Amino acid sequence: MFKQTGTEDIMTHRTSRSANAASWAAASLAAALALAACGQSGDSADTAGDSAPAAAAAGGVYVSNEESNVVHVIDPDTLTETGQIAVGERPRGMRLSPDGARLYVAVSNDNAIDVIDTATAEVVGRLDSGPDPERFAISPDGGTIYIANEDDAYVSFLDIASNTVTRTVPTGGEPEGMTVSPDGRFVVSTSEVDSLAHIFDAETGAVVAEVPVGTRPRDAVFTPDGSRLLVSSEVGASVEIIDAATWEIVETVGFGGPGTPDFVEENIQAVEMAITADGARAYVALGRGNAVGEIDLATFAVTNYFPSGFRNWGLSMSPDETRLYAAAGLSGDLTVIDLEAGESIETIQLGGRPWSVVAAR
Predict the structure, then answer these.
(1) CA nearest neighbour of 87 among 105, 103, 63, 100
(2) Counting beta carbons within 10 angstroms of the beta carbon of residue 305, is it exposed (0 to 12), middle (13 to 18) or buried (19 or more)?
(3) Which one of 259, 287, 324, 341 has the fewest beta carbons within 10 angstroms of its own beta carbon?
């Protein structure tokens, strides 16, 4: 196994990746010819953009594209693109509502969050997010969105029902990573400029702790039991593991070094993360390392790497935990990783600059 300190042994698997360009092209053409007009969701604000037909919906894999201004809809059964949902300018971070009925998309250049009905694949509303939203998190009850407003260095607490920002709390420069503890008590934001993880009381907005972490922290996620907080460091190519009872770092797990497979590029950047439901394993998008890393959270060892496209920024795990989906902005594609087979099985060409991915099934 490969750990932070670097040892020689590591489990690697062969890669079997193939594009399905013909199917993608046909699906894209069908989507382009059959865009449907979207409705409006009452007081939740104005509708934004047109969307693909309902046949492209019914739960799938969603990929935001910050250059094309769409959300791609991928069928996880056929691994082909079945439609595109037009949204506002520069879509980046995305989250599903707890019930899966809505997909929220941060459209950074519009200073808003677009709301997609996952049953119809239509944009049905727009929320006022504050300036330049990038990543955000949703409270466990689905009522509040916590938004990183990168340009103005604060986090907005947005009440979804009234489309009202009820509180803003200052952070360090360029807040990005956002998460909420499973019990809803704590909100976490990472500051790229100050390399801090800010922990706030979700009810009052008061600062609970500020934890120095690796350089330019990108993402934050709690283990499902809420006992630990993981923060990825882009420049540090590492993940800080924090005790959520004391807010102290218990381990720093680094990527790269002796034993790393040849397909992993040297310029590793730790970005978006996903954790299994039992809290046993974490997966980390490695940016310009063009790979995904796997961490054993019991031993803090890096136990595997999987190849991905160029500059893998977004990562999502299927609900049944059999697959990972890795979105790569520089190669314009989505890599599908079969965790049971232990290999990358498909590359889906999307074009543009894919940013974030959400697997609904």
Answers:
(1) 105
(2) buried
(3) 341
Per-residue pLDDT at 25 exceeds 90: no
User: Mean of the pLDDT values across residues 280-308?
Assistant: 98
Check: CB of residue 270 under 8 Å from CB of residue 282: no
Count Cβ atoms below 10 Å from residue 26 Cβ, excluding itself.
Answer: 13
Is the predicted pLDDT of residue 89 greater than 50, yes or no? yes
Burial class (CB in 10 A: 0-12, 13-18, 19+), 296: middle
Q: Give, in order, the Cα–Cα distances in Å from 278 to each of 119, 126, 178, 298, 354.
A: 29, 35, 21, 11, 29
| Cα 209 to Cα 215: distance, rounded to the nearest angstrom | 18
In this structure, what are the phi and psi dihedrals at residue 26, rounded to the nearest 5 degrees? -65, -40
Lowest mean pLDDT among 1-10, 95-104, 336-345: 1-10
Angle at 67 between CA 66 and CA 69, to 5 degrees: 70
- Cα gap 181→177, rounded to integer Å: 13
What's the distance, CA 44 to chain centroid?
24
Which of helix, strand or coil describes residue 250? strand
CA gap 330, 337 in Å, rounded: 19
Output the six-digit token pair for 107: 């459209």
Structure tokens that stand for 80 in this block: 């082909």
Q: What is the CA radius of gyration of the chain?
A: 19
Q: Is 114 helix (H, G, I), strand (E, B) or coil?
A: strand
**Phi and psi for 165 in degrees, rounded to 5?**
-80, 115
